[in-house]
Design a protein that fits this description.
The protein contains 3 helices and no strands. The protein is mainly α.
Length: 84
């Protein structure tokens, strides 16, 4: 795993903590676990996606594949792929 991917995953976790008001309940959640299974609501996911746009400087495409939005790992992979 590249240093960039590790940094992106960590930043996504920080954004989730900000969305949940500093609540660290996602600390033990594996990067590959479904965000829905981890308790992230659809409203919180939308907030995360907007925060990711601001943080990483891109806009989500209307036709993004649903599997991209599944986990911290898949979200980070998408961001890293956009930067290549």
């Amino acid at each position: 795993m590249s240093e960039e991917a590790v940094a992106v995953r960590q930043r996504i976790r920080e954004l989730l903590a900000e969305i949940f008001g500093g609540n660290r309940r996602l600390d033990g959640v594996p990067d590959t676990m479904s965000l829905r299974e981890a308790g992230v609501s659809s409203t919180a996911l939308v907030s995360l996606l907007v925060a990711m746009e601001d943080t990483f400087g891109f806009e989500w495409e209307d036709d993004v594949r649903p599997e991209v939005l599944r986990s911290i790992d898949s979200l980070a992979g998408h961001v890293v792929a956009l930067r290549q």
